[in-house]
Each structure stands twice: as structure tokens, then as C-alpha cells.
Amino acid sequence: MTTDELVLNELKETGALLQGHFLLSSGRHSDRYVQCARLLQYPDRAARVLAVAAEQFRPVPFDLIVGPAMGGIIVAYELARQLGKPGIFVERENSVMSLRRGFAIAEGTRCIISEDVVTTGKSSEETAKVIRECGGEVVGIACIVNRSAELIQYPVWSAVRLTIETWPADDCPLCKQGIPWVKPGSRGNA
Questions:
Q1: 185 is a domain residue
Q2: Domain for residue 186, yes or no?
Q3: Span 154-171, pLDDT tens digits
Q4: Position 48 in a domain
């Protein structure tokens, strides 16, 4: 079994790879959605999947893993556990990502950003801004699923890469069929 097959199998068996009609946080529509929280509820499965991503950047020198809340918190913890490094998270305060809870990033700290899914890179870039403002350096991004079609300015190490088609709301074939959409995820209603 290839690593892609292993990861896809875990996503499907945990119900993390959803089929349906989804309104994404970008406003676009899709017929598939990845809800990694369903995978992350199983520590043994999450460990197997994240080991695939961890192996890709194991030889890269870094000091700290930083995950954006919510999706990056458990990912940061598990990657840090596997690699023997500290893992922290940033969270929104007044709609702006910031370090709280006594977390700090010292000047010169080489950081890897952890995510569950990378799509547009928005949360990663907000996290990178916090790291840079502290004087840290972003080495790359580690995630479970890379579904980014856009240019991300850092290396991305993922357990699997998925191409999921999306459509503008006014040109969605599922809307034209009268199929109701749901808005999943941390920025949605589910």
C-alpha cells in the first residue's frame, strides 16, 4: 500500500473525506470536503497519517512547530511529539492571530507551521506573520491534506495532496441541480 492509499483510506474510514454539496469559506462550492477533525479524534490513526508528513521534513533543521487554532493545534502537538520538538499554537484575539497563554517565539527560531488542510494558505500566512513579528523564521508548512491550487510561498509537506474541484456560486452544477449546500468547517456552521 502506498502512503497516498494509506492516508486516503484513513480519511475515508474516519469519515473525514466528505461527499456532498459544500459552501466553502472562500464562497466557492465543492462536491467534496475534508473534515480532518474526524480523523484527529483517533490518536492512533492521526499518528499514522502525520508520520507520512513528518518523514518528509524530518531532515530539515527547525526548532518549533506552530499551529493556527483550531485545525493546527492537534497537528502541531502530534508532529511535535513524533519529532521531539516543542509545539505551540496561535489563536485569534479580536480577529487577529496572536500568541497567548504564555507562548513565545524567540528571535531566530526556525518554525514549521502545522495545519490540518492547506487550501488558500490564509491561516498559514496569518501564522507566519506572527512568527516574523517575533523575529522567527518560517521554514515551511506541514499538513495532513494539501489541496492548494494557489502558489504558497513556503515549502509544503503533506500526508496527501488532493485536487478538489470548486466552482463559483453562480456557476455551481450542484446548485443548478437543486442540491442544497452545507457550510462545514471552523469558519462555517458545522
A1: no
A2: no
A3: 999 999 999 988 899 999
A4: yes
